[in-house]
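To illustrate the input format used throughout this study, we show a single complete record. The first block contains the structure-token representation of the backbone; no residue identities are included at this stage. The design step must infer an amino acid for every position from geometry alone.
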């Protein structure tokens, strides 16, 4: 077993149609507005950027991201990751019956490159997985609240 390799799969049910959810998720630079654990996102062009994450554990993760797939018709957003985490992450959005709610599937497969996390790979693994789960819970809550806000006047 590679203690520095992680696969995550999280499903969120959101009470908004897929196109509304996609519109929010494709604007990564705005994640810090609604996702508390996403501390900073800095775009570097239309397809790349850097991000800083911090959940419960007292360390920041810094990643670079590059858009690999943006497909609004299929409801797919996928990026490649480098830096403290190397691999990929993908959102896949599908309409639930009636079309007014969305199933948002988040998948991520990464190798940890952060030196501290690598040094603590074996004893820290349960904590790192719990930390990720808390981050995802915060993201679901933040996105659900963000989607409930009325749209700004045009």
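Output of the design step:
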């Amino acid at each position: 077993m590679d203690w520095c390799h992680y696969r995550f799969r999280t499903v969120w049910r959101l009470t908004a149609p897929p196109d509304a959810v996609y519109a929010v998720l494709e604007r990564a630079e705005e994640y810090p507005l609604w996702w508390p654990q996403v501390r900073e996102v800095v775009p570097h062009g239309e397809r790349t950027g850097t991000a800083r994450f911090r959940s419960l554990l007292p360390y920041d993760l810094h990643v670079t991201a590059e858009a690999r797939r943006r497909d609004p018709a299929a409801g797919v957003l996928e990026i490649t990751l480098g830096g403290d985490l190397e691999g990929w992450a993908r959102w896949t959005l599908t309409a639930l019956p009636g079309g007014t709610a969305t199933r948002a599937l988040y998948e991520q497969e990464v190798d940890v490159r952060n030196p501290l996390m690598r040094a603590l790979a074996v004893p820290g693994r349960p904590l790192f997985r719990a930390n990720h789960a808390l981050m995802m819970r915060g993201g679901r809550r933040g996105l659900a609240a963000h989607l409930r806000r009325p749209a700004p006047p045009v």
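Structural context for interpreting the output: The mean pLDDT is 96. Helices lie at 18-25, 31-34, 115-119, 121-148.
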